[in-house]
Amino acid sequence: GNYVAVADTYNGLYIVECKDKKNPQKICRLSFTDWRGNAAAITGLAIGKGVIYVGVSGGVGYFALMCPDAYPSEDVKGTPPANASFRDPYPTRSGHFRAWKPKSQAPVRDVAAHGDIVFAACSYGGLAILKKGGKAGLQQIAEGPMPYAGGVKVCGDILWVAEGFGGLGAYKIGKNGAL
């Protein structure tokens, strides 16, 4: 078709007319807010025959938007993964950069460094405590005590962690990143 549904996290859902590939046109934008009035992110999008399904964060929910002209693209269908925890290896050359991936399938939302220790906020994967150096570049040496970490900042020897509904945590950084 000539239309594309684009989920742009906190910026909302866009419907774009792409008949002229060199000059796509935004047809509409639908954004969401949580119960506090804060922007809520679109976390999932699926297209079915006559419907656009949208998942929204912050307890906002899941929506089925009736759209008679919607249909799933035929050229991007594949088979579902047999092992959901499988990850493709990063094709990296050690001279360029090194990559670290969380144990769980959770996105890294923020990082902060304290000397040779790196704190990675891995959303629902919690807090990963990493040590810089060695062959791998980064090695996980511990985990934080919180189940959710959305952001991290270091000020002096204090690690500040945005813990979602758990609030804001302040932790004294000890030897080798111990909290």
Written account of the structure:
With 179 residues, the chain is an all-beta fold. The protein contains no helices and 15 strands. Strand 7 (51-56) and strand 8 (61-66) form a beta hairpin. The protein starts with a strand and ends in a 7-residue tail after the last strand.
Q: Count the helices. How many?
A: 0
Please outline the major beta sheet. Answer: 4 strands, antiparallel
The topology string of helices and strands comes to: EEEEEEEEEEEEEEE
Rg, Cα atoms, Å: 20 Å
Mean pLDDT: 82
Helix content: under 10%
Strand order of the largest sheet: 9-10-11-12
- Residue stretches low in confidence (pLDDT < 50, at least 5 long) are none
Basic shape: elongated
Structural class: mainly beta
Instruction: Tell me the β content.
Output: 35-45%
The count of β-strands is 15
Q: State the separation between the terminal residues, measured CA to CA.
A: 54 Å
In short, what is this structure?
The strands form five sheets. The protein has a four-stranded antiparallel β-sheet, with no helix packed on it. It has a three-stranded antiparallel β-sheet with strand order 1-2-3, with no helix packed on it. It has a three-stranded antiparallel β-sheet with strand order 6-7-8, with no helix packed on it. It has strands spanning 3-7, 13-17, 25-30, 32-33, 39-40, 42-48, 51-56, 61-66, 110-114, 117-121, 127-132, 138-143, 151-155, 158-162, 168-172.
Give structural attributes.
mainly beta; four-stranded antiparallel sheet; three-stranded antiparallel sheet; single chain
